[in-house]
Amino acid sequence: MRALRWHNVKDLRLESIEVPTTLQGQVKIRVEWCGICGSDLHEYVAGPIFIPQGTAHPLTGEQAPITMGHEFSGEIIELGEGVKEFALGDRVVVEPIFSCGTCEACKQGKYNLCEKMGFLGLAGGGGGFSEYVSVNADMVHKIPDSLSFEQGALVEPSAVALHAVRQSQLKVGDKAAVFGAGPIGLLVIEALRASGASEIYVIELSEERKAKAEELGAIVLDPKQFDVVQELQTRTNGGVDVAYEVTGVPVVLTQAISSTKLGGQIMIVSIFEKGATIMPNDIVLKERNMTGIIGYRDVFPAVLSLMEKGFFSADKLVTKKIQLDEVVEQGFEALLKEKNQVKILVSPRL
Question: Nearest 5°: CA angle at 166, between 279 and 248?
């Protein structure tokens, strides 16, 4: 089968590899759609970050080259021994987190914080940028009949956004700021809407992404036109309740901190490629608090339920659909060069 494999920075290769076997407790999925994630883009431009190179991942036993792709949907075409909760033909999405089940985080149910945690499609185990994937059945969630495979491919990134909002101190009626209107930033807007935020401000430079944010109901502030910190402080009478940093840009983190009210919160959602310098007094003297999230846990069913109500709409967020053999130039490179792109979906079936 065809699979997109990460070999090194700017070195992704579409290769022919063996179709995976289906072990006990697993299901084999024929991939329909897989989204290109910001994490995939980080690996392409500046990796390895999550991809093991030189040393095998402790849970998968794999290292580069790795088949990529973790935002995917598909149809079950084979059941491993002992699998009773699924049937052939089930339409599903995969929660692509590997965890050991025995460390302290796993014992507490915080499997996304496992000391050996890895993502399918980054740490090994196959990936959605291929024709078939075999995964443990406990990683799989059924797609409701009312949702398309394209919508299913948005469940994983939407889970990141919803987990970020759930883990923050936001309450119904609070005011929030989202720094960055890339794919995750736009999904955070949707999660904030679903969670009852009264005002959602978005800080973004790209004209196309500003338009998308406005379409989703956000109030857009362009850093070229405003001192965004001062503007947020003025419009919200002292600052937002929670600021979500979704750019991975050090200077933006500083702005996010300063945009919050007394006792406000900064939630870091992005992955940083390099360190960021902050002034601790900006947190201490206002009794602000700063935290972050990685991935998600126990949130896929809620995302699917919200999708049935119209949130996280693929029609609004997917800007391009391509074939697997186009994924580098029309996918990864397009996301680097074309600021109008939001979410690009890839299909091995086209």
Answer: 40
pLDDT confidence band for 6 (50 / 70 / 90): very high
Which pair of structure tokens corresponds to residue 274? 């390099």
33 CB neighbour count, 10 Å cutoff? 26
Encoded tokens for 202: 């978005």
Q: Which fold has domain 161-292?
A: Rossmann fold (3.40.50)
Which two structure tokens, joined as six digits, stand for 12? Answer: 């992704």
Structure tokens at 101: 């089940």
Contact between 238 and 227 (Cβ < 8 Å): no
What is d(CA 290, CA 128) in angstroms, rounded to the nearest whole number? 33
CA dihedral 39, 45, 48, 54 (to 10 degrees): 140
Q: In terms of pTM, does the model score above 0.85?
A: yes
Tokens of 43: 């690996």
CA nearest to 138, candidates 282, 280, 26, 257: 26
| CATH 3.90.180.10 intervals, the chain | 2-154+312-347
Q: Return the percentage of the chain with pLDDT > 90, whole number.
A: 95
Is the per-residue pLDDT at 271 higher than 90? no
Please state the rounded mean pLDDT for residues 219-233: 96
Residue type, 221: L
Domain 2-154+312-347, CATH = 3.90.180.10
**Which residues, listed in sequence order, are joined to residue 28 by a DSSP beta bridge?**
78, 134
Closest by CA to 71, choosing from 109, 100, 39, 46, is: 39
Tens of pLDDT, residue by residue over 66-78, are 999 999 999 999 9
Segment 179-220, tens digit of pLDDT: 999 999 999 999 999 999 999 999 999 999 999 999 999 999
Place of tokens 């095998």: 56
Upper half-sphere CA count for residue 238 (Cβ side, 13 Å): 8
Residues of the chain with CATH 3.40.50.720: 161-292
CA distance 171 to 329: 42
Dihedral (C-alpha) 335, 139, 63, 30: value to the nearest 10 degrees?
A: -70
Rounded to an integer, what distance in angstroms lies between the CA atom of residue 227 and that of residue 175?
Answer: 18
With tokens 């119904």, the residue in question is: 172
